[in-house]
Amino acid sequence: DNRLSGSIPSELGTLSTLMQLEAYNNDLTGTIPAELTGLSYLRRLYIAGNLLTGKLPTVWGPELMFLDCSDNALTGPIPSELGSVNKLQELDLSNNFLTGLIPVEMLSLSMLYFLYLDHNYIEGNLLGGDEDCDDPKEGGEFGWVALKELCISGNKITGT
Q1: Contacts of 40 (CB under 8 A, 6+ apart)
Q2: End-to-end Cα spacing for the chain
Q3: What's the whole-model pTM score?
Q4: Of 32, 39, 90, 109, which has fewest CB within 10 angstroms of its CB?
Q5: How is residue 74 annotated by DSSP?
Q6: 21-75: per-residue pLDDT in tens?
Q7: How far apart are CA 112 and CA 135, in angstroms?
Q8: What is the sign, positive or negative, of the torsion defined by CA atoms of 2, 4, 10, 14?
Q9: Cα(129)–Cα(107) distance, rounded to whole angstroms?
Q10: What single DSSP character describes residue 34?
Q11: Three-class SS of residue 5?
């Protein structure tokens, strides 16, 4: 709530020991720098409530546990690479303009407790894949065993 403006500096990616960044509810614009999201020790990234645009990066650090990019203007699909962030516990991408399917790779996130995808333009089967897929888990193992909250309202998701 500092009313920071401008883009997120890619130079933050040089802070090799950075574990947490909170820059929510500001006026940050531009895209999310991959230099930042790929940091090896980054565990928590809170950049909700800004004016960020563009696609979500495809590079994610292995220690990431909490990611909140909600309430921005992000577009494009949810990157399948998020499915390889094995320590991810909370993912909030709500209130953006994300499109496409929920990547089947995300079904293997066994430590995921909270998943918020509400109010986007996501479509297809809830358990991954599209309407024509006989096995929605094809290519991935259903691992949301720890999931406590799933918010998907305001999309075009189907399935049971």
Answers
A1: 16, 61, 62, 63
A2: 39
A3: 0.90
A4: 90
A5: E
A6: 999 999 999 999 999 999 999 999 999 999 999 999 999 999 999 999 999 999 9
A7: 22
A8: negative
A9: 11
A10: H
A11: strand
Contact 124, 155 (CB under 8 A): no
Give the chain's length.
160
Q: How many other C-beta atoms can be found within 10 angstroms of the C-beta atom of residue 132? A: 7
The owner of tokens 């996501």 is 122
Closest among 125, 91, 92, 85 to 108, alpha carbons compared: 85
Extract the tokens encoding 83: 């499915």
> What are the backbone dihedrals phi and psi of residue 106, each rounded to the nearest 5 degrees, phi first?
-70, -15
Instruction: Give the span between the Cα atoms of 153 and 143, in whole angstroms.
Output: 21
Find all residues with CB under 8 Å of 134, minimum gap 6, and list them. Answer: none
* Contact assessment for residue 63 and residue 86, using Cβ atoms and an 8 Å cutoff: no
Pairing of β 44-46 and β 121-125: unpaired
